[in-house]
TrEMBL record:
<dbReference type="Pfam" id="PF10181">
    <property type="entry name" value="PIG-H"/>
</dbReference>
<keyword id="KW-1133">Transmembrane helix</keyword>
<keyword id="KW-0812">Transmembrane</keyword>
<feature type="transmembrane region" description="Helical">
    <location>
        <begin position="6"/>
        <end position="24"/>
    </location>
</feature>
<dbReference type="GO" id="GO:0006506">
    <property type="term" value="P:GPI anchor biosynthetic process"/>
</dbReference>
<feature type="domain" description="Phosphatidylinositol N-acetylglucosaminyltransferase subunit H conserved">
    <location>
        <begin position="30"/>
        <end position="99"/>
    </location>
</feature>
<keyword id="KW-0808">Transferase</keyword>
<comment type="similarity">
    <text>Belongs to the PIGH family.</text>
</comment>
<protein>
    <submittedName>
        <fullName>PIGH acetylglucosaminyltransferase</fullName>
    </submittedName>
</protein>
<dbReference type="GO" id="GO:0016740">
    <property type="term" value="F:transferase activity"/>
</dbReference>
<dbReference type="GO" id="GO:0000506">
    <property type="term" value="C:glycosylphosphatidylinositol-N-acetylglucosaminyltransferase (GPI-GnT) complex"/>
</dbReference>
<keyword id="KW-0472">Membrane</keyword>
<dbReference type="InterPro" id="IPR044215">
    <property type="entry name" value="PIG-H"/>
</dbReference>
<dbReference type="InterPro" id="IPR019328">
    <property type="entry name" value="PIGH-H_dom"/>
</dbReference>
<comment type="pathway">
    <text>Glycolipid biosynthesis; glycosylphosphatidylinositol-anchor biosynthesis.</text>
</comment>
Amino acid sequence: QNSMVLSAAIFITLIGLIIYLHFVKIDQESLLVIGSLGIQVTSSYASGKESTIFIEMGQVKDVVINEAIHMQKVIYYLCILLQDPEDPQGVSEVVPLFQSSKPRLDCLIEVYKSCQEILEQRKTAPQSS
């Protein structure tokens, strides 16, 4: 009977590990910004599964570096601010990026500058009807 309990515990642990690797453990996060199209955020899990989110450029109001206090520590993260369709000056949603990898502030600043360059090019380019 003890071996049956031990076998069940091992089986449950293995199932839990597989679920963790497939749905929770993110190995890599990437951000692709195309000024004329939109922003693609891809997360690659340890199991090989990939999750992709695409945000049309017309929905993007701005990209910002936000800060939060967590466990007596200030953490910085990159966010996409989505434009409110009813209020052009308002923000409808904040989409945080790189939540698993938690890059340092100097890395976030580099990504932020690149995103801002692309957003500025989009604003200065003539809009087609």
